[in-house]
Amino acid sequence: MKIVFFGSPEFSAIILEKLAKNNFKPVLAITSLDKPVGRDQVLTSSVTKILAEKYGIPVLQLKDLEDPVFKQVLGNIQPDLIVVAAYGPPYLPDWLLAFPKYGCLNLHPSLLPKYRGASPIPFAILNNEKETGVTIMRMSEKIDGGDILAQEKLEILPTDTTLILTRKLADLGGSLLIKTIAALVESGVSPYSQGESPTSYCCQLKKGDGRINWNSPADYIERQIRAFDPWPGTYTLFGKKNLKILKVHVIKENTEPLKPGFVFLSQNKELSAQAGKDSLAIEQLQLEGGKPMTTEEFVRGHREIIGIILK
User: Fold this and answer.
1) pLDDT tens per residue across span 65-81
2) Phi then psi for 235, rounded to 5 degrees?
3) How far, in Å, CA of 306 to CA of 263, rounded?
4) Which of 149, 170, 202 marks a domain boundary?
């Protein structure tokens, strides 16, 4: 079974490792170009590239799927199957869809047709879904609209962040992918259409999406903080600097509500901020240019935060 694997972030790398450890080691990994990262803009490889090199899997980094070098390499390999997991762009050209013997499979971290698009995991948390899952589908010209081969559900816990849930879904999806490929080769799998079921589409997140609107209910802001961890992060303005809010818990209203964004000490002496409904006790935070701190550490150096209104 000659598999060509497409992927870049940690989600992809977890799935790639599952394949490599279960007799489905790809013959080629396609991943993104090295990118400058951090304050010093150090050129950094994708997690998938690093893992592929660990397992001795050849790597090809592409700007464009129409690259003649890519076409030549693929022609030489003549792959039986293409597997895509978190690789952009979210579609493959028609010639590539028709290339391998067993087609092109995409592993998507949602229960399609719900949450098509680029950010299904954070939006499932943000929208207070109780469960999510993974879908393996045959790729088509329609983004995330191909026929489904397999699905598996996963409960979303109240403590799950996007980082935690991404790892859980990658692990679940990798195991399901191995079973699906084996079944595809041995006896075939009967795909079924996504049909006309209600769909939802989630767009690519932007940095500005992480800014807190203190008029929102505390429950929503708490989910926003978990949904946007690790990126784009959730922040507010403290003076002229961004203040990341890293971890909170909700305090249900017992007294007359204050102005949204007002910072106060709760009855339990927790640093808290008023929301549109209820309030949030802040457990961890990080001032722009600084390191993550507990509330106690932060307040020791910034007593002036008590009594102000965050924006």
Assistant:
1) 999 999 999 999 999 99
2) -145, 165
3) 5
4) 202
